[in-house]
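TOKENISED FOLD:
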Amino acid sequence: MTKPRIGILGGTFDPIHNAHAAMAVTALTWLDLAQVYLLVTDTPPHKPKAKPTSGYHRYAMVTLALQDQPRVLPCSLELEDGGDSYTIHTLARFARAFGLDDRQLVFLAGGDSLRDFYRWRKWEQLLKRYQFVFVARNGMEPGAAARELLADRRIVDARRSDRTVWAELLRQGPASLLLDMELPDISSTRLRDMLRSQQDCTGLLPAAVQDYIHKLNLYGGK
């Protein structure tokens, strides 16, 4: 019997927006995943050390955004320990916590992460132990280091492939994938700026998340 595959989408989600939600739901459907967890990170070591919004609020926003998606779930595993969040440690902890094999885990990440993937802690070990799905933005250039991974097919460039073959490409493994899910181009950084300047964010955020932000004035602007 084939063991179920579990997707993990990590991020600060500061705030979570409609592109995050769309990525999770698309992956759930087209990658034939049993569940997708949105893993709320504490302090990503590869990003500037600007202090994110409280993990309590970011986790609450993720929960609100997913309330109508029973198979897309929030995960607080990284918030529980605090500090820098290294994927190599988190995936091992996740597998132990949920009693899963390494090959059951599919880590979802934006295409921008692929450009800097060689900077991730023990990135070669990550590719050997787990499968990754990198989701490209429109006009994204992978970069020289990523092109080498694509050339030797440790990461398969499936951006032009039909969605109906995505799950089969993962099952064939062990290579990871670069996909184009045609997601809306939304940036959390840009959203924070819009919220501070009281611009209309309708259609960019789940309505429940936007209400939560306004009620607590999380990003200023009032």
